[in-house]
Amino acid sequence: MIKLTLFLCSLYAGTCMPPYTVQETYADNFSCMLDGYQKSYEKMVQIGAEETNTAGLYIRFVCQDIEPKIPQKEGSGT
Which of 25, 39, 55, 78 is the most exposed place for a label (fewest CB within 10 A)? Predict the structure, then answer.
C-alpha cells in the first residue's frame, strides 16, 4: 500500500506548511504519482495565480510505501 503526502511551500518565505496525507491508499507507485500531479494541479487552480505568484507557492509530493518490504533470508523459501 502506498500513501500520498503533499507539501505546500513558499519559495520566498523558505518554508512549507504542515504536510497533508491523502486518506486513500494506492496499489502502486504509478497511480500514486499520477494522483499527486492531479491533486497538485487542482490545488494550484484553487489557490489561483495571484496568490501563487505573490507568495512564490509551489507544491511537492511524495509517494511512500507504508508496508515496508521485509528482506527474505536466503534459502528460507518464504
Answer: 78
Asked whether the whole model's pTM tops 0.85, one would answer no
For residue 29, the surrounding DSSP H or E stretch is helix 29-47
* Digit-coded pLDDT (tens) for 17-73: 999 999 999 999 999 999 999 999 999 999 999 999 999 999 999 999 987 667 777
Q: Would you call 55 helix, strand, or coil by DSSP?
A: helix
Count Cβ atoms below 10 Å from residue 72 Cβ, excluding itself.
9
10 Å Cβ neighbour count for 65?
A: 13
Pairwise CA distance, residues 36 & 4, whole Å: 7
SS3 75: coil
